[in-house]
Amino acid sequence: MTNGQLQEPQDEAVLMAQLKEILLREDRSALEELQRTLNEKQLLAEKINPIVEDHLTYLKQNFPKEYAKIVNRMVEQKLKSSQTEILDVIYPVMGKMINKYITFQFQEMKDSINARIDAFFSKQGIFWWIRNKIFGIDNAEMLLSSLDTPIIEEIFVIQRDSGLLYGSATLYPTINRDVVAGMLTAIKSFVEDAFEREHEDLEMIQYGSYKILIENMPSHYFALAMSGSISNTEGAALRNQIIDFIQENELLQSEHFDTVSQEKISQALDSQFIAPQRERLQKIKIKQNPTK
Amino acid sequence: MISKKVILTGSFGVGKTSLFNRFIYQQFSDKYMTTIGVKVNKKEITADGEEVSMLLWDIAGELSQDKVPASYFLGASGIIYVVDLSRPSTFENMVTDVEYLSHLLPDSSLIIVANKLDLLSEEQLENIQQSVAQKWNFATSAKTGENVEDMFIELAKKLIANHW
User: Strands, E, within B11-104: which ranges?
Assistant: First the structure.
């Protein structure tokens, strides 16, 4: 091979290799460095950990925003598909709660029976015992019936057609009583019209152990919201009490009534029907918690 | 203060409940929800220096003898009969309904209200006014509140006048 002549292909390849070696030296060392980083756990961790940590911090801060919908949907689906399993899990807890409630109710009943027994062995109690023996009344029945005496919680006197409130009294404050009187009249009117029972009036609304007794008069009606069971005798006594009340309160006969008469009737209702209930409840409270 | 029962009646969808809500709660909703049965509420207003407690009965749907228990109307001292200005069909029964109510409650004060005033131009309103046999006492808009309070005050005045 002489100067000015074409080089042989072998020389060319060597030269190219040398050229590559020169040009790619830096890239190759970077690649080797990268390979080393990827292959060595320690080095890889040093590079990746900050990125992962940043992302974890972001997730911690924004998880509800980013994933709430997905998680909610998953939970909903899981709840729907695993009702039996869920029941299995919560059953023991519910069982305990029910058990606790029943125990509490029994305790209340026991306390009440104890109070009755104490009263039973008083002078008056012995008198009642003798009386029960003479008339053949079972003492246990007597005790149980005295445990569940009715309580008048609210009383309303309402104009029959218009539903306007003549007066009311209550043991516990409730929602607007004018509205209650109006709605009660609407319900009463609806029932009486819908079933077309001529000359018959709605006399009671009951839900659970709670009752609304309705005593109908020609121009108005009484509605008594009561808890506890009411015997026929107690019902008759209440009716008599209402008739006495009407006779004593001439305001109830007036067609034109205003807020002044409404207040007077409400006061009379309170003193005759609600105040005795308040006193009775107070006595029961004192008996059950004498220290308080 | 005197207490009076007032009934709101008229065809379905004329805006009885909207008038009721506008007057009682100063609210309006575009969402239509039909009234089931009857809704009762109370509002006290002053008219001619006298206080009146109105027990308002918003009675659901069609005023027809077989659709609404007649007893709902009993004892009412005031009647608000509502028609819908945007639905001419609600005017069709107006004459017979008003006659029926006047016969059922001869001593009560009746006010005819044409509601949904906000949906009409003045020209359209005049055209309707000329075409109907029975005239209304108030054109109201439960949506904007236009004339609603005035209408109830007018009714209160009538109730006071009838009371004494």
Answer: 38-47, 50-59, 78-84
pLDDT tens digits for range A213-261: 999 888 889 999 998 877 778 888 888 888 888 888 877 766 666 777 8
**A246 or A91, higher pLDDT:** A246
Candidates A55, A215, A160; CA nearest to B5 is A160
CA–CA distance, A82 with A103 (Å, rounded to integer): 32
Tell me the angle at which helices B16-25 and B148-163 cross, rounded to the nearest 10 degrees: 80
**pLDDT(A109) > 80:** no
- Alpha-carbon span B128 to A16, nearest angstrom: 100
Contacts of A272-281 with CB under 8 Å at 24 or more apart are A272/A241, A272/A245, A273/A152, A273/A155, A273/A169, A273/A224, A273/A241, A273/A245, A274/A152, A274/A154, A274/A155, A274/A169, A274/A170, A274/A171, A277/A151, A277/A152, A277/A153, A277/A171, A278/A171, A280/A151, A281/A151, A281/A171
Nearest CB to B76; choose among A160, A162, A190: A162
pTM of the complete model beyond 0.90: no
How far is Cα B36 from Cα A154, in angstroms, rounded to an integer? 27
Interval B78-123: pLDDT, tens: 999 999 999 888 888 888 888 988 998 999 999 999 999 999 888 8
What CA–CA distance (Å, rounded) separates A145 from A157?
A: 29
Cβ contacts of A189 on chain B, cutoff 8 Å: 69, 71-72, 74
Q: Measured between CB atoms, does B1 come within 8 Å of chain A?
A: yes
A196 near B CB under 8 A: no
Residue of B nearest to A259 (CA): B1
pLDDT of residue A270: 93
Residue length, chain B?
Answer: 164
Q: Say yes or no: A262 contacts chain B, CB-CB below 8 A.
A: yes
Q: Nearest CA of chain B to the CA of A258: how many Å? A: 5
DSSP A101-158: HHHHHHHHHHHHHHHHHHHHTSHHHHHHHHHHHHHT--HHHHHHHHHS--EEEEEEEE
Rounded to an integer, what distance in angstroms lies between the CA atom of residue A270 and that of residue A171?
A: 9
Sign of CA dihedral A154, A157, A163, A166: negative
